Amino acid sequence: MHTLEDLEAARAALTQSQEKFDRYSGNNPNKFRSEIKSAGAAVRMIEASLKASGLLPRSQQEELEHRLDAAFPNAQSKQTVEFEGKRYTLRFTPAAKSNSGKSVTEWRKYWTLEE
Length: 115
Known about the structure:
It is flat and about 55 Å long. About 5% of the residues are buried. Strands 1-2-3 form a 3-stranded antiparallel β-sheet. A hairpin with a 2-residue loop joins strand 1 and strand 2. It has 2 domains: about 1-55; about 60-115, no CATH class. The protein has 3 helices and 3 strands; from the N terminus they run αααβββ. Helix 1 (about 5-25) packs antiparallel against helix 2. With about 120 residues, it is an alpha+beta fold.
């Protein structure tokens, strides 16, 4: 289980990696990219763990998405469901891509309210 100190350390590592990239004046456009990506993934993983355990509060949207995920664990992409009298559609968007930018390495799932 992660702690708030773990989150602070991961955020500091991410900031440090981004600052190294910003200060870099060489001609390698991919320098520090993998370091930044892995630090960002660590921050996202720790935040999700802390929110799941209740140490970090969820936003209203995150709480709604958590309840939708629990109610519809087998929902597929672009599937529309009815929940508490409203219609929601499950969507996915890339959270991280490969260094070339051609492949998605991590997906983010979210629900949208249908009008």
